[in-house]
């Protein structure tokens, strides 16, 4: 059996073909396009659909895939009737007008109910739902179903409309993790009747005949991408884990962190795993910040440039994107003017130092798995292992933990084995002065000592 996984990221969307042995047999990539329409930034859904349908059709014809699964980024919803969107899909990177924000923000549930901090833009997609409802009530009235982003694509490709807990529980304001039910906001706004019945991530929710195939392929219910990565590693029986999932966002998930230590002002929250369990989380836009600091660097970073950057004290100080554990601070570079490779080194060191801080704040003391595109070449994981010698570090055998977890869910749902490659042990990097560089960075950031001491991180 083979499965095609559509991994819809905010910056890049990808298709992977997985075999039962966990190997990636083929892949394709594109970038979603965002356009302006009626005062909103919205997804060019038709363009992305054409790419996705073409990629899946080719996977059916060239590899004989028998199912298609979706993994999707958070913060995004879709309103649909029986056949189509009733409003274009909103870009989560836009802020409601101030007068509307003042009204809708009064209706947001308390953090103690949803464990969704009040975040800017559409980082809580319930907030964007309130905004859209204010300005286009007809789109809500016409909608038969309110879908999470992965569920939209599973539906668009031929599945039935369903809800899925890992996506609803992703800092949306729509879910109450302790009750394992919709939040008070859903009932206050009358949305419960538009929320479809639940299906587990990976469940078969339809089928479709594509290309020249003799029989239809299964359409599997989609999943939130970082929760898919968590599932990928949990299923391998590795014991207690913290997962660092990297991409546009760096998501640090520690299921063993006590809920009462989560600080809503540091972008700490509860995600929900595919079985409805709470997963304490801290996050920042690491991929976006890496691109901003590095000037769009692509490819490997010379290790010599990292040592030069440490020796010169060139540092990036937070924050270069909204949200994160240190919001409302203007990001800046300090030290002498770096060359291009030193800027890239400073960017990677920044991501490593931010992850290190997040691991302290989320009370991580167990094994850490580093996954995703920012760990190309294993350098990020190596830096973290050097910074935190008291912890064991592993890294994904591929960079595609989210897609691998999504594939596993699809195979499991039809009773098939899926033998993903085990993560690899990480050797600590060996850079002179890294610990002192970290201490100097934290001193410059300021105000972190009490939080870090209280967190009791494993260093």
Write up what this structure looks like.
The chain is an alpha+beta fold. It contains 16 helices and 22 strands. Strands 1, 2, 3, 6, 11, 12 and 13 form a seven-stranded mixed sheet that branches. A seven-stranded mixed sheet has the order 16-17-15-14-20-21-22, sandwiched between helices. Strands 4-5 form a two-stranded antiparallel sheet. A hairpin with a 4-residue loop joins strand 2 and strand 3. Helix 9 crosses helix 14. The N and C termini lie far apart (44 Å).
Please specify the SSE layout and strand pairing:
Layout: E1 2-8, E2 13-19, E3 24-30, E4 34-37, E5 40-43, H1 45-63, E6 67-72, E7 77-80, H2 98-104, H3 111-114, H4 125-135, H5 137-142, E8 145-148, H6 149-156, H7 165-168, E9 175-176, E10 181-182, H8 184-188, E11 204-208, E12 217-220, E13 223-224, H9 225-234, E14 241-246, E15 250-253, E16 268-272, E17 278-284, H10 286-294, H11 303-312, E18 315-317, E19 332-334, H12 340-361, E20 367-372, H13 379-387, E21 393-395, H14 401-413, E22 424-425, H15 434-445, H16 449-455
Parallel strand pairs: 1-6, 6-12, 6-13, 14-20, 20-21
Antiparallel strand pairs: 1-2, 2-3, 4-5, 7-8, 9-10, 11-12, 14-15, 15-17, 16-17, 18-19, 21-22
Helix pairs in contact: 9-14, 10-12, 11-12, 12-13
Organism: Mesorhizobium huakuii
Pfam families: FGGY_C_2
GO molecular function: kinase activity
